[in-house]
């Protein structure tokens, strides 16, 4: 029954963390919206479209963060067979996919007025699209087997192979000199954007992170309940099978 | 107010960005809440059928079956 021991402790800790993460998410997103829509200036080049950045950039960070988290959880699951690691990797995937999708669409909505195009096959844009496909592939693979453990293992390997894409996204703007501009939030020697724009950016980033914790805990709880249900059903089937067999044939089991 | 919604002529690009982010985040959250409710209710129902197999150190002890 050691399989349940860790999830039980996780559920206790999660119940303590959850109200705080909900509070942080609501406060940071509320304040972040206020600063990004009202209390920050328009950019001298981008005009009001700079406000799209307060969604786009934190979403991109979340897309990469969630994938990295998913790969770390998957590695823990493969190496130490930690029962929670698989659950957390599975729980993170939809959040990462959602933010990657938001990042791609808001990028297009910014690109049309500023670059004059919705989409180009630029290194940054293409590697971000690949990230979305990796998320979708991971989720499809994890559910593709009748035996959930096999699906989980295959998906974990995909997550680990795909993690090579994360540094490619990160440095794509430096390695290939195409359309997407290089990082401007933090450069060597400190922050490179004005505090008036840094405040909404950081608030939104914190809000998105807290939102991830909230959804992660909810999804992990659903996964734990699902795993318990599977175990109970297997025990029922096993018990039913034993009743049908004569005692003598059971040997030392 | 009209000026605020116009977003310097870029309203058609700024507002869909915020609306999309809100819709996607609320959809994922709602789906997750629904999944938790459904699975935990089902688990509770199944566990009630098997009162003898309750574990003593359960994180959320179920009410005793009478």
Word description of this protein:
The complex is a heterodimer of chains A (253) and B (66). Chain A is mainly alpha-helical and 253 residues long. Helix content of chain A is 77%, strand content 2%. Chain A has helices spanning 2-37, 50-80, 83-115, 123-142, 148-162, 165-175, 195-244; strands at 186-187, 190-191. Chain A has a two-stranded antiparallel sheet with strand order 1-2. In chain A, helix 3 (83-115) runs antiparallel to helix 4 (123-142) and helix 4 (123-142) packs antiparallel against helix 6. Chain B has a domain at 12-49. Chain B is built from two helices and no strands. Chain A binds chain B through residues 1, 4, 7-9, 11-12, 33, 37, 42, 47-49, 51-52, 55-56, 59, 94-95, 98, 101-102, 105-106, 109-110, 112-113, 211, 214-215, 218-219, 221-222, 225-226, 228-229, 232-233, 235, and chain B through 7-11, 13-14, 16-18, 20-21, 24-25, 27-29, 31-33, 35-36, 38-40, 42-43, 46-47, 50, 53, 55, 57-60.
Short description:
Helix content of chain A is 77%, strand content 2%. Chain A has 253 residues and is an all-alpha fold.
Which parts of chain A are unreliable, with pLDDT below 50 for 5 consecutive residues or more? none
Q: What portion of the residues of chain A fall into strands of 2 or more residues? A: under 5%
- Oligomer kind: heterodimer
The helical percent of chain A reads over 70%
Main sheet summary of chain B: none
Q: How many H/I helical runs of chain A?
A: 7
Q: Proportion of β residues of chain B?
A: under 5%
Mean pLDDT value of chain B: 81
**Strand order in the largest sheet of chain A:** 1-2
Rg of chain B from C-alpha positions?
23 Å
The greatest inter-chain interface is formed by: A-B, 43 and 36 residues
How far the N terminus sits from the C terminus of chain A, by CA atoms, comes to 17 Å
Number of strands of chain B: 0
The major β-sheet of chain A equals: 2 strands, antiparallel
- How many beta strands in the DSSP annotation of chain A? 2
């Amino acid at each position: 029954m050691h399989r349940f021991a860790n999830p039980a402790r996780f559920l206790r800790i999660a119940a303590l963390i959850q109200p705080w993460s909900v509070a942080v998410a609501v406060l940071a997103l509320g304040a972040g919206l206020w600063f990004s829509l009202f209390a920050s200036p328009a950019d001298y080049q981008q005009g009001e479209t700079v406000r799209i950045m307060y969604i786009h950039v934190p979403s991109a960070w979340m897309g990469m963060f969630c994938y990295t988290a998913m790969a770390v959880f998957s590695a823990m699951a493969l190496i130490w067979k930690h029962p929670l690691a698989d659950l957390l990797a599975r729980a993170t995937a939809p959040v990462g996919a959602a933010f990657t999708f938001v990042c791609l669409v808001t990028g297009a909505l910014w690109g049309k007025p500023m670059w004059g195009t919705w989409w180009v096959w630029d290194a940054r844009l293409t590697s971000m699209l690949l990230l979305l496909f990796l998320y979708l592939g991971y989720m499809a693979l994890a559910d593709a087997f009748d035996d959930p453990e096999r699906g989980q293992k295959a998906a974990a390997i995909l997550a680990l192979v795909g993690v090579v894409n994360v540094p490619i996204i990160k440095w794509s703007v430096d390695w290939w000199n195409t359309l997407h501009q290089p990082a401007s939030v933090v450069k060597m020697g400190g922050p490179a954007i004005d505090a008036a724009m840094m405040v909404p950016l950081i608030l939104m980033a914190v809000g998105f992170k807290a939102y991830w914790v909230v959804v992660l805990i909810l999804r992990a709880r659903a996964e734990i309940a699902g795993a318990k249900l599977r175990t109970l059903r297997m025990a029922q089937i096993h018990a039913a099978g034993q009743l049908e067999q004569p005692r003598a044939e059971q040997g030392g089991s | 107010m009209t000026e605020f919604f116009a977003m310097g002529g870029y309203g058609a690009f700024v507002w869909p960005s915020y609306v999309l982010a809100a819709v996607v985040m609320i959809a994922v959250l709602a789906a997750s809440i629904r999944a938790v409710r459904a699975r935990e209710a089902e688990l509770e129902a199944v566990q009630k059928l098997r009162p003898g197999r309750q574990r003593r150190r359960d994180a959320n002890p179920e009410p005793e079956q009478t």
